[in-house]
Each structure stands twice: as C-alpha cells, then as structure tokens.
Design brief:
- The chain is α+β, with helices and mostly antiparallel strands.
- It has 2 domains: about 120 residues, OB fold (Dihydrolipoamide Acetyltransferase, E2P) (Beta Barrel), CATH 2.40.50; about 45 residues, no CATH class.
- Helices cover about 30% and strands about 25% of the residues.
- It has 7 helices and 12 strands.
- The strands form 4 sheets. It has a 5-stranded mixed barrel.
- A hairpin with a 3-residue loop joins strand 6 and strand 7.
- Helix 3 packs parallel to helix 4.
- It starts with a helix and ends in a 6-residue tail after the last strand.
C-alpha cells in the first residue's frame, strides 16, 4: 500500500512540473518574466535557464523590448519546469508554432545562459557561445556584468554610504528615448517611454542633455 502511495505521489509530481500552459500574454515585466492568462487564470512566468539584464543594466530595456515585440498579445505555450520561491511558474516559452523564445533571447545576446539552474542544457550553452563569438547584444561590451552579480552588487550598495560609492566611482545609469534629446532618472515620467539605458557619461557623449523635470 505504501509503495503504491509513493508511486502515485511521484507520478503526480512529474505531472505537476511537466504541464503545458497555453495562454495569451497580457504583460511583459522584463526580458525574462511575463504574465499570461489561461482559462481565466493568470500566471506569472519566469523563463527557464536564462537571465536577462536588469532594466537598469545595459541591454535590460532592449531585452524587454525583444520579448515584448515577439509575444505581447499573442498566444504562447509554456513548458512548465518548476515553481520558484516567488511562486512564479518557471518554464520554456514557445511561440509561432514552436519557436523557443528562451533560446532566441540567449542567441541574440539579450540574455545569459543561467548555468546554475540549467547546467546540462547544451542548447542554451551553444546559443550563448554563438552570441559571444558574434559579439551580439550584451556581448558587444568587453566586460558584461552577469545579472546575478549585478543584483548582488545592488544589494550590497544599499549598505554603503554615498561617500564610499563616490570613492568607488559608481556611475549612475540614465534612460533615453528613441527620439528625445534628454536623459532621465528611472522615476521620471518621461522614462516610461525609454527604450535604452546607459551610463550618464555615455549619454552626454552622445549629445543628450539632462532632463529639466527629474534633474538626473
């Protein structure tokens, strides 16, 4: 009897983490996180095996735009792998008759292969190798910072004084729009239309001026 219960539990567990969720994408949080609705139920999906730059990093907004342009408002299939500690469904997102968006984000240089959580995924490894060789997206930068290292640095910086930050020459990130001539803080109302983030010095070198509203 006990053996049957164990087998049943095992089969239910496999079924739980091998389900396919088909639904319409209603919101794109960032490059690797979306919201969809399926059978009147909402799901928050975290892409399996990849990690896109944070929105305050270089190529963070571009990664979000890539995902948005590919699937927003469309019906996708999610091959659910797991549930993370935040309650999000972790899975592989397929669109346009089976195209693997997780793979495409990495191959085009908009995401890192999250080796810690997908160590044996050779497809993602090869996609990242391809992006590196061709210096695509984030790999066009000589020393890109992995999102997990960036987040660790952000958490650490909260405990560091402004004086120490200044001594370490931590440069602020600003946001620009496609057609505008100003750069903005992330909290500025004009930053909602931003399509690119960059260091302040780069924005000034490109001829952008400081926004008079948020005064970055």
């Amino acid at each position: 009897m006990l053996k049957k219960i164990i087998i049943l539990f095992f089969l239910l567990t496999i079924n739980l983490f091998s389900q396919t969720i088909t639904g319409k994408v209603i919101y794109v949080s960032d490059g690797d996180t979306i919201h969809l609705i399926s059978n009147n139920q909402k799901y928050k999906i975290r892409f399996y095996g990849i990690d896109t730059p944070e929105k305050s990093q270089e190529f963070g907004l571009e990664a979000k735009e890539f995902t948005y342009n590919k699937i927003f408002g469309k019906t996708v299939e999610v091959d659910a792998k797991d549930t993370d500690r935040y309650g999000r469904t972790v899975g592989v997102v397929h669109y346009n008759n089976g195209r693997d968006l997780n793979f495409e984000l990495v191959k085009n240089g908009y995401a890192w292969w999250y080796e810690q959580y997908a160590r044996n995924n050779q497809q993602l490894r090869m996609a990242q190798d391809y992006a590196k060789r061709n210096r695509l997206g984030l790999w066009s930068h000589p020393n890109p910072i992995a999102p997990w290292d960036y987040r660790r640095g952000q958490r650490s910086s909260k405990t560091v004084s402004k004086q120490v930050e200044s001594s370490q020459k931590i440069e602020s990130v600003v946001y620009v729009t496609r057609t505008g001539k100003k750069y903005h803080r992330s909290t500025c109302r004009y930053a909602a239309k931003a399509t690119r983030s960059m260091p302040r010095s780069e924005a000034e070198a490109l001829g952008y001026g400081a926004c008079g509203v948020c005064k970055p």
